[in-house]
Design a protein that fits this description.
This protein is an alpha+beta fold. 22% of the residues lie in helices and 31% in strands. Strand 2, helix 2 and strand 3 form a beta-alpha-beta unit.
Length: 64
């Protein structure tokens, strides 16, 4: 199961509930500490990458 989530609060709730949550962005330093503490993983994307939908987009994979 996969979902794209826009919003850090939803990402944090899903991660704390045991979901595997990954976020994308340009700078890992801009990811809120609360997300890192919840186990959210950051993946750096190129500035011109078409994969980056939004600086606040969150990718969730619950296939495990």
């Amino acid at each position: 199961m996969r979902a794209v989530i826009l919003g850090g609060a939803t990402a944090e709730r899903l991660a704390r509930a045991g979901w595997a949550v990954d976020v994308t962005g340009r700078s890992p330093g801009l990811m809120p500490d609360e997300l890192a503490e919840a186990g959210v993983r950051f993946h750096r994307k190129a500035v011109h990458s078409p994969v980056v939908i939004s600086s606040r987009a969150v990718y969730v994979d619950a296939s495990d």
